Amino acid sequence: MLVAISNTPRDYAWGSPTLIADLEGREPTGAPEAEIWFGDHPGSPAEVHDGTERTLDAWLPATAREHDVPAKLPYLLKLLAAGAPLSIQVHPSKEQAVEGFAREEEAGVARDAGSRNYKDDNHKPEVIVALSDTFTALAGLRDIARTRALVDALGDAPAVTTLRAHLSVDDASEALRATIGWLLGEADAAEIAQIVDAAASTDSAAFAAELELTRSLHTAYPADPGIVVALLMNLVTLRRGEAIFVPAGVLHAYVEGLGVEIMAASDNVLRGGLTPKHIDVAELLALVDFRPAEPPYLRPTTAGEGAEVFAPGIADFALGHLVPGASSQLDLRGVSIALGVAGSATLTGASGESVTLAPGQAALVTPDESPLTSDGAGEVFVAMPGA
């Protein structure tokens, strides 16, 4: 079975007013359009266009036996359009989520409370693939020698000297833990402002992009401590079709651009700056992997002519990609969601049933339709369970 599904954009303040509209070939509404969710997450379940007027969170349990689909999807697929930087954040591991959720449930913390850290008991690894010509992100903590060199370029203001002292601890992970703990929990507004001012006024060819980002972040979030946390992170510019995988513990923030994102079905987010929302510093420090690392690029593997798969090696999800050109086939791993992102693509399942997707249009595909064939005229991403 191939059945069309749809949803409406979510109007988070950081959303772009044009990127999703341009993809879909329509006039912008004038409001920010941040994300469109294609899944059964209760926060914004997709509508199923089969005449039943059900949303996907109701459709799956009602048809699970008939169509051999699970009552709940293990993943959530999104279009994400960042017109302004999202908050710096980290997601828990499965074990951390189970423990944290149970702890807050036992303490009686309301699930919609602003101070709630764990909305559910699941982890939230995620992959984003750039759809715009470039997609800017912060992902993981930079090699500490380079970070020390960046801070050395900021001069000798008292707060910069304190920052430099925290980063001078021999063990890189402990140095970064101490630095982020100080920035988010101990440094006062004047100290943060002093570091930000130093970075905004510094001219360094080696770190020109990082310092320019500091200036734009200061415009969006004046004197926010997350601006300085961002100086410790890898600045990543993805070209169209490139991806990063963000597992548990990796600090990250999406800065600007349009992408297709897939994640485990969870709403667990611990924030670390660039936000007016609650920051639980102690819990954040307990979750972050402070080991410096290169940016977490994820390269696809070939899955036949015209098909590839972004597979991070987890059970929750993988993301298939049918490129425009020659007709291609993709073997599905359970119930899948196909999303058109360019051109007009006609997808045909094993039963001979077909659906045509324009950019921004999506369809749910049941497992008995594998392999899924594309006519090659358009570009499609296919969310499915992982191996």
UniProtKB/TrEMBL annotation:
This is mannose-6-phosphate isomerase. SUPFAM superfamilies: RmlC-like cupins (SSF51182). It catalyses: D-mannose 6-phosphate = D-fructose 6-phosphate. It is an enzyme of class 5 (isomerase). Its EC number is 5.3.1.8. Binds 1 zinc ion per subunit. Belongs to the mannose-6-phosphate isomerase type 1 family. Its cofactor is Zn(2+). PANTHER family: MANNOSE-6-PHOSPHATE ISOMERASE. The active site is at R271.
